[in-house]
Amino acid sequence: MNAPPLLAVDGLGKAFDGLVANRDISFIIHHAEIVGLIGPNGAGKTTLFNCLAGFHTPTTGRISFEGQDITGTTPEAAAALGIARTFQIVRIFHSMTALENVMVGAMLRSKRVADARYRAEQELAFVGLSHRADNQASDLTVSEQKRLEVARALATEPKLILLDEVMAGLNQTEVREASQLVHRIHQRGIASIIVEHVMEGIMPIAHRMLVLDYGAKIADGTPAEIAENPAVIAAYLGE
Ligand SMILES: Nc1ncnc2c1ncn2[C@@H]1O[C@H](COP(=O)(O)OP(=O)(O)OP(=O)(O)O)[C@@H](O)[C@H]1O
Ligand SMILES: [Mg+2]
After folding, report:
1. Which residues form the ABC transporter domain (predicted)?
2. Whose CA is closest to atom 11 on ligand 1?
3. Can you say how many angstroms the Cα of residue 6 is from the centroid of all Cα atoms in its chain?
4. Is CATH 3.40.50.300 correct for 1-82+162-239?
């Protein structure tokens, strides 16, 4: 039996008034795959995430998840199906504790507070934040807040996680830890699409890279293929 791919995007476009942020983008994501999504500032990466996670309705094209059409779905429905995300600018509940923030994610699967708490503790441990469980989220460092968002996303029990610049602003050690975290997410059987400008964080761990430029996909290949692709080099050199 041929199972459908985890995610299939076909001819996706998104326009804001006159501005075309995504144009005719097609690609497939397989179960547990680690895919890097790169491109210059304004290339349309976050817009694509917003379309995949139900925050924007695409202008054209289709998105299917495990064979089910989810084009124009809501964030709640996308999360329920197994698509979780983090935000380029972290969106945590500042006045809640770290544990409570992750419990918000866990409540998607469990209405029992004790279960959600247990689940949240597991995910805090997974991202290395157990010692911060009872701290107010606003007291966490930027690096910790990014990991907190990853924990909250994982607590929703996703099949696909969309990580938007979780390595931005991190020092070398933290970038290495973030790469290892992505690899451990893969080992749990969860696919990830990682928007990242920090190449040393993504290139060593990605199975495949997608490259956007001016809203369109200009390359789709292994990190090694992407690194020597003339169109990609030109996009980054601004030619
Ligand atoms: N809600 C919106 N309304 C209008 N224009 C938008 C909206 N969201 C994004 N855009 C525009 O769409 C284009 C793509 O933006 P997007 O945020 O997707 O880029 P990006 O690749 O994530 O960039 P960066 O690397 O800087 O985060 C930009 O020109 C941006 O100004
Ligand atoms: Mg962005």
Report:
1. 7-239
2. 21
3. 14
4. yes
